[in-house]
Amino acid sequence: MPSHFDNTYHNIYAEPEYDTPAEKKRYEAIRAADEVLELKPARLPTRAEENEYMQFLAEDFRSDPWLTFRFRKYTANPKRIPWKHSRQLKRQY
pTM of this prediction? Predict the structure, then answer.
């Protein structure tokens, strides 16, 4: 760990002062390990994937019942598809 941190206005560009070269190597290794374990954001979908998903949603919305007591369950949300599948399985049973 550096023995001194610069808390001035230019601390962004200042380098910490280390006691020994071994301390500097240790601190840099810890910092590199922390950077390696950072989570990467998910990649953005391509235009073709977006179009495919929009077509899937359009077809899925068309297959919804027009009149239902639980119409809020059919709105666009993460629980839409499991709700729809469970309803279909119950009707088949």
Answer: 0.44
